[in-house]
Amino acid sequence: MPKSKRNKTVTLSKTKKKGRDHKESIVNSIREAVEKYGSAYVFSFENMRNLKFKEFREQLKSSSRFFLGSNKVMQVSLGRSVADEIRPGLHKVSKLLRGDSGLCLTNLTNEEVQRLFNEYEEYDFARTGSIATEKVELKEGPLEQFTHEMEPFLRKQGMPVRLNKGVVELVSDFVVCEEGKPLSPESARILRLLGIKMATFRLHLICRWSPEDFEVYKEGLEDSDVESS
């Protein structure tokens, strides 16, 4: 009688996953950083670009350390209540780690941190689903910025084009995107070809903690968000 596959033994010894050990490593790193650096900030981000953020982080690596990832793990690291916070007041920071947010531990002055975050701004090409910041319309006629080899690709993006004596030509006006509406994959590709950047990668400070005080920057937060539990 053949062996049942239901009872087959499967070894997991070669399987590598980011499990408990990985989370504990992050928790320990954050707790060590809290002891090493003088203040902690929660920040939010929009239109995240990993390469740009890495460059920003590199600029501050001698004086600061950044953490991005699971908000829950970062909350556990700091403590989510007065009873389990690792230093007085850090549970208030923990409560504001939600959504697209990160943690910055630093020895920079409050003024310097605010200046660096407020001034940081990087423009990039918008991705599919991003909201168009302006209407982009191409008028009927030659598109001299494109070579004749681009004509088949442009046609696949929905553009009414043809070749006229080796020049790519629009046979009628074409709206690439409408202000306030999400970008389709085709619109995002065309905007990139046109060199039009509609996404801005920004960082926004939400709060600051130090052993002496706690301050909330971002407007619109309810008082209950930072009250002690």
TrEMBL record:
Keywords: Cytoplasm, Nucleus, Ribosome biogenesis. CDD domains: Ribosomal_P0_like. Residues 1-20 have a biased composition (Basic residues). GO terms for biological process: nuclear-transcribed mRNA catabolic process; ribosomal large subunit assembly; rRNA processing. GO terms for cellular component: cytoplasm; nucleolus; preribosome, large subunit precursor. Residues 126-196 form the Large ribosomal subunit protein uL10-like insertion domain. GO terms for molecular function: RNA binding. It is found in: Cytoplasm; Nucleus, Nucleolus. Ribosomal protein P0 is the functional equivalent of E.coli protein L10. Component of the ribosome assembly machinery. Nuclear paralog of the ribosomal protein P0, it binds pre-60S subunits at an early stage of assembly in the nucleolus, and is replaced by P0 in cytoplasmic pre-60S subunits and mature 80S ribosomes. Associates with the pre-60S ribosomal particle. PANTHER family: MRNA TURNOVER PROTEIN 4 HOMOLOG (PTHR45841:SF1), MRNA TURNOVER PROTEIN 4 MRTO4 (PTHR45841). This is Ribosome assembly factor mrt4.
